[in-house]
């Protein structure tokens, strides 16, 4: 199901759009502030963003710019109050892919979303997330609460394997085998312990990264 993040502080408009998109088979989430949207985006990447220009805690084009710096392929539609050329130009300058002016017909919004999704690759497929951690698998970059974290090759591969198997416990033996032995590097069990310790410290000891005593590790949402 296509996930839509709609940043809109008008409850009536947000509710109408949400119900309409649900009828069309989308999975919309509403965020009434830029701050709440940023918090959600650091934990999970949707398929498309709809951003209203006028928000109580800032201008929608600033959120657009922030999102574009982090996710260059994330489809973004900026929604303006009026068909103001200056707003439109500013929105495109900040990274918006399209714009639509209020008041808009729901059918028109739906058509714009569909058109943008058709010409955009599935950006969410290039990202893995769990709690405050996200991994850009295309660029091999790690983020914690939206901030890029520098990790070693071993730390990245360890995190990637756990993220790819989110919700499953991975044994220490499997981690050693898949991360180090397959690369022709024989290491002992202490290498995994040290690598995990350093990774946890860099990620600020996230509660979603769990140790399963005497067995292995697991990434788990909602903790």
In short:
Helix content is 40%, strand content 24%. With 223 residues, the protein is of the alpha/beta class. A five-stranded parallel sheet has the order 2-1-3-6-7, with helices on both faces. The protein has a four-stranded antiparallel sheet with strand order 8-9-10-11, covered by helices on one side.
Can you tell me about this structure?
The two termini are 24 Å apart. The longest helix has 14 residues, at 106-119. This protein is an alpha/beta fold. The strands form four sheets. The protein has a five-stranded parallel sheet, with helices on both faces. Helix content is 40%, strand content 24%. 32% of the residues are buried.
At the third CATH level, what is the topology name of the largest domain? Rossmann fold
What is the SS-derived class?
alpha/beta
- Main beta sheet: 5 strands, parallel
Strand content: 15-25%
- Let me know the CATH homologous superfamily of the largest domain: Response regulator
Low-pLDDT segments, ≥5 res: none
Give the averaged pLDDT, no decimals.
Answer: 86
Total number of domains: 2
Q: Strand sequence of the main sheet, in spatial order?
A: 2-1-3-6-7
The arrangement of helices and strands along the chain is: EHEHEEEHEHEHEEEEHEHHEE
Report the radius of gyration as a whole number of Å.
Answer: 20 Å
In CATH terms, what is the architecture of the largest domain? 3-Layer(aba) Sandwich
Q: How are the elements arranged and paired?
A:
Elements: E1 3-7, H1 11-23, E2 27-31, H2 34-41, E3 48-52, E4 54-55, E5 58-59, H3 60-70, E6 76-80, H4 85-93, E7 98-101, H5 106-119, E8 127-130, E9 133-136, E10 141-144, E11 147-149, H6 153-164, E12 170-171, H7 172-179, H8 189-202, E13 209-212, E14 216-219
Parallel strand pairs: 1-2, 1-3, 3-6, 6-7
Antiparallel strand pairs: 4-5, 8-9, 9-10, 10-11, 12-14, 13-14
């Amino acid at each position: 199901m296509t996930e839509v993040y709609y940043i809109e502080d008008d409850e009536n408009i947000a509710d109408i759009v949400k119900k309409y998109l649900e009828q069309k088979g989308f999975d919309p989430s509403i965020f009434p502030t830029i701050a709440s949207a940023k918090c959600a985006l650091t934990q999970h990447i949707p398929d498309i963003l709809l951003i209203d220009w006028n928000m109580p805690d800032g201008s929608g084009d600033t959120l657009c710019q922030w999102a574009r710096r982090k996710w260059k392929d994330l489809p973004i539609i900026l929604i303006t109050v009026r068909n103001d050329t200056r707003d439109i130009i500013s929105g495109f300058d900040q990274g918006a892919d399209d714009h639509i002016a209020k008041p808009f017909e729901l059918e028109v919004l739906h058509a714009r979303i569909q058109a943008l999704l058709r010409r955009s690759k599935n950006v969410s497929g290039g990202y893995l997330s769990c709690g405050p951690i996200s991994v850009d698998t295309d660029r091999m970059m790690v983020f914690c609460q939206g901030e890029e974290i520098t990790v070693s090759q071993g730390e990245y591969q360890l995190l990637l394997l756990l993220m790819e198997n989110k919700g499953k416990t991975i044994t220490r033996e499997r981690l050693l085998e898949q991360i180090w032995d397959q690369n022709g590097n024989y290491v002992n069990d202490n290498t995994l312990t040290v690598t995990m310790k350093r990774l946890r410290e860099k990620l600020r000891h996230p509660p979603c990264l769990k140790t399963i005593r005497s067995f292995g590790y697991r990434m788990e949402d909602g903790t």
